Amino acid sequence: MRLNSQRTALYKQYDKQSMNQRTANTLNLSNVTFSYPGQSIFNNLSVAIPAGVSLIRCDESRGKSTLIQLLAGKIFPQKGSISLSELNSRTDHDQYHGQVYYFDVRSEIFDQISSLQYFAEVQKNYPDFDSAMVPALIAGLGLTPHQDKPLYMLSAGSKRKVWIAAALASGAKITLIDDLTAALDRGSIEFIIGQLITLASDANRHIVISHYDTLDRVPFASVLDI
User: Fold this and answer.
1) What is the pTM (predicted TM-score) of this model?
2) Range 43-54 burial, b when 16+ CB lie within 10 A, else e
3) What are the start-end ranges of the H helices in the chain?
4) What is the predicted pLDDT for the residue at 10?
5) CA of 65: how far to CAs of 20, 120, 176, 181, in Å?
6) What CATH number does the domain containing 75 carry?
7) Is 76 domain-assigned?
C-alpha cells in the first residue's frame, strides 16, 4: 500500500472474525493525510485495525508517535478520518476520546501524586478498569518499593512502568502505548510481553503499541510498517 513516493506502508491483518464483526469493531483510518510544515508524514493512509494487540513498527522519526497521537485524538488529520464504531475522532471528539487511554510521557501533570493515587484517578475515568490486575502489574514491573512515592521521585523508566500498567488495566477500547520498551529493563519487557499475550484475545479492545521491531511471541492482530 503506497502512502506517497517517499513512504510505503505494509499492512498485514490476521483477524479471523467475520467481515461484519470486523466492520463493527474496527479502528478505521480512511484516507488520512497529515503533515508538519515542510514535512509530509502521511498521505491518504487507509488502514483497518482489528481488535486485539496491534503494532506500529518503524525507525525513529518516521511517524509512529504522530500516528499514535492521531489515533488518540490529540491531533487531527488534515484530510480523511479516524473512527471506531462510527465515532469520529474529530466530529465526535468527546465520545471518541472517552474510549482512549493515552499518556504523554513528557507530561508532569500527575507528578505530585503516587502510583497508587494515579491508578485510582484512571479508575474514575474508565468504567472497565480492571483493579484486580493492579497488584500483579505493580509486582511484575518492580513498582512495589515505589508505589507510595510521588511520581516526580521516580526514574524515567519507573514512571513509564506506571503509565504502561495503567494502560493495560484501563480496559479502554483504544489503548495506546508509544515506544513501548523505552527506558525499561529486560525483566519488565518480558513481563509486559506476557501481559500482551494474555490481552491479545480481548475482542473488545484495540491495544496499539509502537516499537522499532517486532516483539517476539506477541500474537499481533495487525502490523503496520511505516
Assistant:
1) 0.88
2) bebebebbbbbb
3) 19-24, 64-72, 93-97, 115-125, 134-140, 156-170, 186-199
4) 36
5) 30, 27, 10, 14
6) 3.40.50.300
7) yes
92 within domain boundaries: yes
In the chain, what percentage of residues exceed pLDDT 70?
Answer: 89
Task: Identify the CA nearest to 47 among candidates 9, 90, 95.
Answer: 9
Domain, as residue range, for 35: 1-99+175-180+203-226
Tell me: the pLDDT tens digits for 166-222?
999 999 999 999 999 999 999 999 999 999 999 999 999 999 999 888 888 999 999
Q: Give the CB-side neighbour count of residue 21, counting CA atoms within 13 A.
A: 8
Overall number of domains in the chain: 1
74 Cβ neighbours under 8 A, 6+ residues apart: 102, 104
Residue 129 placed within a domain: no
Residue with cell 494515579: 118
